[in-house]
Amino acid sequence: MKNLSGSEEAKRNAAEKACELVTDGMVVGLGTGSTTAHAIKYLGRKVVEDGLKIKGVPTSYASEALAIECGIPLTSLTESPELDIAIDGADQVDAALNVIKGGGAAHTREKIVSMSAAKFVVIIDDKKYTDVLARSVPIEVIPYARRLVEKELSKLGGKCTVRSGTGKDGPVISDNGNMILDCEFGRILEPAALSVKLSRIPGLVEHGIFTNASMVYIGYEDKVEVRSRKM
Length: 231
Ligand SMILES: O=C(CO)[C@H](O)[C@H](O)COP(=O)(O)O
Prior knowledge:
By secondary structure, the chain is an alpha/beta fold. The chain has two domains: about 140 residues, 3-Layer(aba) Sandwich (Rossmann fold); about 70 residues, 2-Layer Sandwich (Alpha-Beta Plaits). Helix content is about 30%, strand content about 25%. It has six helices and 13 strands. The strands form three sheets. The protein has a six-stranded mixed beta sheet. A hairpin with a 5-residue loop joins β4 and β5. α1 crosses α2 and α2 runs parallel beside α3. The longest helix is centred in the N-terminal third of the chain and has 17 residues. The two termini are about 30 Å apart. The relative contact order is 0.19. The mean pLDDT is about 95. Ribulose-5-phosphate (5RP) binds next to α2 and α4. The site of ribulose-5-phosphate (5RP) has 19 residues, from α2 and α4.
């Protein structure tokens, strides 16, 4: 489902600028994906070289492994249920800072972590910023409920495909042991309303529409723009 990615430089610029919000003593949600990887590596350097004292809560096996490799001490949501900040990438962000996530199939844990944080900071490159969300929405589904979920999504106008793996035949299985559907809704003019409808479907574990971003850092090759949610 990954595409539309900008340059590594643009991703790195957004990630490193957002990391300036992280200070001593913070518990930090660590998202998943190639943009967040720049943030994890940057924070790791700050921990190892400058003695920054933070603890990270990873959102996937991948970000856990990278954080350990980079020297970031980890904690869990059980031990640290209230995070100071969560930093994470996204697949698309609209002008009102609604977000589609889940290109890496990690959106369930990412949403839990982002909702546990006082501040949810999204980092993207410029190619992902748009007026209106119009990408397929990743949907994590308990395999037992797949047919019901597909039927309910189709009633909402969605067209679903089961996400297939690479390096493995058959469906992608999430870190939680579930399947991922990618569901096309065309232009999503009312993301918050769609989010509520999706959340009501039994067996649908979590969907990739996030309406809780506090700030979005948009990276370009030579600058970073910061947008804050209007309260
Ligand atoms: O939501 C995500 C993973 O579930 C990622 O944050 C999103 O797919 C962006 O990834 P990348 O920075 O590699 O483009």
